[in-house]
Design a protein that fits this description.
The complex is a heterodimer of chains A (about 425) and B (about 325).
Chain A lengths: L5 H12 L9 E3 L2 H4 L22 E3 L1 H6 L1 H23 L4 H37 L5 H29 L9 E8 L3 H21 L3 E9 L5 E9 L3 H5 L4 E7 L10 E12 L12 E5 L17 E5 L18 H29 L14 E6 L4 E4 L4 E4 L1 H5 L3 H28 L1
Parallel strand pairs in A: 1-2, 6-10
Antiparallel strand pairs in A: 3-5, 3-7, 4-5, 6-7, 8-9, 10-11, 11-12
Helix pairs in contact in A: 4-5, 4-11, 5-6
Chain B lengths: L1 H20 L15 H14 L5 H12 L10 H5 L4 H15 L4 H4 L2 E4 L2 E4 L9 H14 L6 E6 L5 H9 L3 E7 L2 H14 L5 E5 L6 H7 L3 E6 L14 H4 L15 H13 E11 L4 H11 L3 E8 L6 E7 L1
Parallel strand pairs in B: 3-4, 3-6, 4-5, 6-7
Antiparallel strand pairs in B: 1-2, 7-9, 8-9
Helix pairs in contact in B: 2-3, 2-5, 3-5, 7-8
The chains are: A alpha+beta (about 425), B alpha/beta (about 325).
Chain lengths: ~425, ~325
């Protein structure tokens, strides 16, 4: 059983979350189009290998990435691997099983190989054009100039394509998800902020055309939100939402504050990929389903309107259950279905973390539930700004941001690109060592 | 901003106090000032608590949510809950809560309840479906899913129609015959079937299995399954029931005789005569009854064979199955 390993995994998790471990020299690059955007205004410091706090990451352009020897080496290695496999497949000398493995490899690598070849061809064309730029004939020089522009554009396109193909896909990227918000420190003010963030992601889901079904909504007395969860499904929803998980911090003068003092409060967002029925199953014997009416008579003996349900996963104990009583529906069996959905998502993301924790532990952009104790973003109302601490990106206009539309999407896309770049550099780093 | 919040908070405290001060002995007096849904629910919950009404908090919340056009309090928007209620809505809450104070079940007060994914009309004295029965439907559903072709079931004691209508909703190729000894029940099932658009595949009869066995035999045969939540309470337990059950629900839907088995035995006899080969009987029964039922079937009905008993997830109510062999 996978779940037997749970305690040791928890310890690993604690280690992973220690911020000091994250002070690791990281460089990132960005796509050229975004270099011209607002990110240029953010402070990019050169990272240093010190014990000081996290430094804002530097962002590399495509040119810079392709200037790196590690990338060139990696591409050469990919080409060699491809050629080797192709030779083996063509010579037909090896075992059937090895043949099949090599054939799969060939088809996997062929798109990136094609792009590498396209790029090389363009670079050659570019070099030829550059000779013409020194020609005496002015008309020819002008023509060459136009040619060069077109070449440059194509080169960028092929570089981007190569980079996209190299970045590994996440296992859960295509899944639907369960989103869970919980108020953190700051009492009622934190709960009010939690309600706003929940609405923001509802807006974000709407913006992307995803469905957003509220599973649970526990409000506070003053109109805030203690905790809530929702089931989100739609195209690439997990791939985007995974970057939003973590601690969100708000700085403002709360409505309830009499002396006009500024408060800092927090809320936590967890994003749990929803497993498909086939990919992940739970043994019903491992579940303890509870209702509040567990003792005393039931059935025809009593009238009840209490339909709340809670499920405990016995092998993992109390740590993994739906936490609260789910009473969003009047039907008990519907509440049970909802509780199962939440439980499945929680167990599945635990399993995923277990599998990928080592791979991720040195990244700035932690995804999934691992980001839980990490402060990822600050919403500062007096300055009307939102800062993401992982990539040091700041945007202004809180009102638009909280609508969950373009502004949030912009920050989310930057995080995605940043994360892709981290993944790519990690890939190159591994190659360097081997 | 902060001062106004404070003063309105004070006002509401005052108001609750006023409400309590002028309360008569038959419930809460209608508030003079406008109050919010939260305050209304809170006041009634406290009074229910004082008067020993079961599930005081849930009762007042379900009634308030219903008046606001929602199913649960949790699904009402936060702003709506803290807005002052219009006088009509306040009056409606007061009227409905007064009924609950007299121990009328919430399901009858708001005249509807959910069973699985259906919303059904509820009306006294027709038996209110219990959560355990949702699980009985689960078991029948998972067995029917393995079957193919046209299927038919018989439900004995349909009440509001919960079991038959759930099954019909899930299986477009299924036909059902449902009967009940109560005319009110037959009418209510009819209404629910009509509002769910399931009336075409449902045959309804006002018949009593204890008296009209012959007629039932003549009007229905060759069914794939017999399903029932029959009256299974022991007569001696009837008097100790909650007022909600005792004073409002039809005793005929609850009282199963001295050993609670009177109707169960009739259902089994009928089943042995009308089931197709390998057809099944599904019953919700009291936890004390399965061994008695098994014994009785083995000695009286050779055609039936006891299959198994499943407990509901509170390990309290059991769902027994018998197989036609």
């Amino acid at each position: 059983m996978v779940w037997r390993c749970y305690p040791s995994f928890l310890q690993t998790l604690k280690l992973v979350l220690k911020p000091s471990l994250l002070n690791i020299h990281r460089e990132v690059y960005r796509k050229r189009r975004l270099l011209d955007g607002q990110l240029q205004n953010a402070v990019f410091k050169r990272t240093l290998q010190t014990t000081a706090s996290l430094l804002a990451p530097r962002i590399l352009s495509l040119e810079e990435i392709f200037a790196r020897t590690s990338l060139q080496d990696y591409l050469k290695q990919v080409e060699n691997e491809y050629n080797d496999c192709l030779n083996t497949v063509n010579t037909n000398e090896t075992q059937e099983e090895e043949q099949r493995a090599k054939r799969t490899k060939v088809s996997c690598l062929s798109p990136v190989i094609q792009s590498i070849r396209d790029l090389k061809a363009k670079e050659k064309e570019m070099a030829e054009t550059e000779v013409l730029l020194k020609d005496d004939d002015q008309a020819l020089r002008q023509l060459a100039e136009q040619e060069r522009e077109a070449c440059l554009h194509d080169i960028q396109v092929f570089r981007q394509k190569i980079v996209d193909l190299l970045i590994p896909e996440e296992d859960a990227d295509l899944n639907d998800l369960v989103l869970e918000v919980t108020a953190g420190v700051g009492g009622q003010e934190a709960m009010l902020f939690t309600a706003e963030v929940f609405d923001m992601y509802q807006g974000f889901a709407h913006h992307h055309g995803w469905s957003f079904d509220v599973l649970e909504y526990m409000r506070s007395d003053l109109g805030g939100l203690r905790r809530a969860s929702a089931s989100v499904s739609g195209d690439q929803c997990y791939k985007k939402m995974k970057f939003e998980a973590g601690v969100h911090r708000v700085q403002r003068v709360p409505k309830t504050e009499k002396q006009g003092r500024m408060h800092t409060s927090t809320m936590t967002l967890a994003v749990l990929p929803q497993p498909t029925e086939i990919s992940f199953s739970i043994n019903p014997k491992d579940l303890k389903i509870e209702t509040k009416r567990a003792s005393g008579a039931g059935g025809q003996h009593v009238n009840t309107t209490d339909s709340a349900v809670r499920i405990v996963h016995l092998p993992t104990g109390k740590n993994i259950n739906t936490g609260v009583w789910l009473q969003q529906e009047r039907s008990q069996i519907k509440n049970k279905e909802t509780a199962m959905k939440v439980l499945r998502a929680k167990l599945y993301s635990m399993k995923l973390e277990e599998e990928t924790s080592r791979r991720y532990q040195q990244r700035k952009v932690q995804v999934g539930t691992k980001g839980r104790s990490e402060k990822i973003r600050t919403y500062n109302f007096p300055q009307d700004r939102i800062t993401d601490h992982r990539i040091g990106m700041t945007v202004h206009d809180l009102e638009s941001f909280l609508r969950g539309e373009d502004l949030l999407d912009e920050m989310n896309s930057s995080l995605e690109e940043f994360s892709n770049q981290e993944a790519l550099l990690e890939l190159l780093g591994e190659t360097d060592q081997s | 901003e902060s001062i106004s919040t404070l003063s309105s908070l004070n006002k509401s405290l005052q108001l609750i106090w006023v409400v309590y001060a002028v309360r008569g002995c038959s419930g809460l007096a209608l508030p003079v000032q406008r109050i919010t849904a939260l305050q209304a629910a809170h006041s009634w919950s406290q009074l229910f608590q004082e008067k020993g009404v079961s599930e005081p908090d849930l009762s007042s919340r379900y009634i308030t949510a219903h008046v606001l056009g929602a199913k649960t309090f949790e699904s009402v928007k936060a702003e709506t809950l803290s807005e002052p209620l219009c006088p009509e809505k306040t009056l409606q809450i007061w009227k409905l809560c007064a009924k609950r104070l007299k121990r009328m079940p919430v399901q009858y007060v708001i005249e509807e309840w959910d069973f699985r994914d259906l919303t059904l009309k509820m009306r006294p004295p027709v038996f209110i479906p219990r959560p355990e029965t949702e699980e009985l439907v689960d078991i029948v559903l998972s067995d029917l899913q393995k079957e193919s072709g046209s299927l038919s079931i018989l439900e004995v004691g349909c009440g509001s129609g919960a079991i038959s209508l759930s099954l019909l909703k899930s299986f477009p190729q299924l036909r059902a015959v449902a009967l009940d000894q109560s005319e009110d029940a037959v009418h209510l099932t009819k209404e629910n079937a009509l509002s769910l658009g399931l009336e075409d595949r449902l045959q309804l009869y006002h018949l009593d299995i204890l008296k009209d066995a012959e007629i039932i035999l003549n009007s229905c045969s060759g069914v794939s399954a017999v399903v029932s939540n029959p009256p299974y309470l022991y007569t001696e337990d009837m008097l100790s029931l909650q007022p909600e059950v005792l004073s409002f629900e039809d005793p005929a839907a609850l009282d199963g005789g001295a050993d609670g088995l009177t109707v169960i035995k009739q259902v089994l006899i009928l089943a042995s005569q009308i089931l197709l080969n390998h057809g099944r009987v599904y019953l919700e029964v009291d936890p004390r009854q399965p061994p008695l039922i098994q014994q009785w079937v083995e000695s009286h009905l050779q055609a039936l064979c006891y299959v198994e008993t499943k407990q509901d997830f509170n390990n309290r109510f059991v769902l027994s199955q018998m197989l036609m062999s």
